[in-house]
Amino acid sequence: MRSVLGNELLKTYLRWRSYIAFIAIAVVVPLVLVAMKLNAEAMLRGATRGLSQDFLFLGNIVNGYFVTYFIMNALWIHVPFLLTLGAGDQLAGEATAGTFRILLTRPASRSRILTMKYLTTLFYTFTVVAFLVGLSVGLGLLLFGGGPLLVPAKILTLLPAQEVPWRILLACLLATWGMWVVASLAFFFSSLVDNALGPIVGTMAVIIIFYVISGVPVDLFRDMRPYLFTTYLDIWQKALESPIPWREVLESGLILGAFGVGFFGVTWYIFVRKDILS
Predict the structure, then answer these.
(1) The whole model's pTM is what?
(2) Does the pLDDT at position 10 exceed 90?
(3) How many CB atoms lie under 10 A from the CB of residue 83?
(4) Closest Cα to residue 32, out of 134, 156, 143?
(5) Where are the chain's structural domains?
(6) How far apart are CA 112 and CA 99, in angstroms?
C-alpha cells in the first residue's frame, strides 16, 4: 500500500500542471500584499466604516493576520478552481495518457489504486491550502508585523494577539476540510470522463450553480441551501469568531464529511465496474 501511495504522490508532484495552483498563489498573494501595504490606511477605514466615531482603534490593526484573513476571504471563491487542476487529473489524466491498462496490471486491486489516488488528492488539497495560508501569514508578518486580529464580519470581532496563531491554524484545517469536498467532487467527475478538462468544468459549474442558488433571495432556494455543500464551505471563518461556535463547527464539519464520503463512494462504485479501454 505504501508503494502505491508513494507512486501516486510522485506522479502527482512530477506533473507540471500540479504546480499551476502554487504558482498562481505565489504570484497573486505578494501582489495583493504589496497593494495592501500601499493602501493600509484606506483598508482600515473601510474595515471600520461607521465605527470610528464610537471606537478608538489603537495599535497595529492592519497586520499580518488581518491581511491573511482578507486574502483568504477574497480568494476563497477561486481556490476550488485551482484545486480541480490537480484533483481532476487523477483519473482522467490516466485515461488521457492511455496508461490505465498498464496501471491496472499491477498486483494492487482497483479499490486500492482508487483509494491511494484519492488520498493523494486529499494530500494535494492540503498542501495547496497550507501554502496559501502559510505564504499569506509569512509575508504578511514580514510586511505588516503582528498584533490582534480584527475580523470585520457580521459581528465585528477583535481577537487578542496571543490567540491569533492557533485560530489561524484552526481556520487552515477547517478550510482544508471544506476544500476536500470540492476535491472529492472533482475526483468524482474525473472518473466519468477521459479528458482532464471535464472535471474542471464540471466542478466549477456545480459550484457556480450552487452559489447562485444560495444568493438568490427566493423562498424555494432558501429551503435548498441546507442541502448544498457550498453553504458550509465558509466553516473556516467560524474559527475566527469569539467565542468559537463549536456546535456549528461540528455540524458543518459532519455535513461536509458526509458529502466527501458520498462523492468518493459513488466514484468507487463507478470505477470498480468501469470498462477500461485504454
Answers:
(1) 0.87
(2) no
(3) 24
(4) 143
(5) 2-272
(6) 17
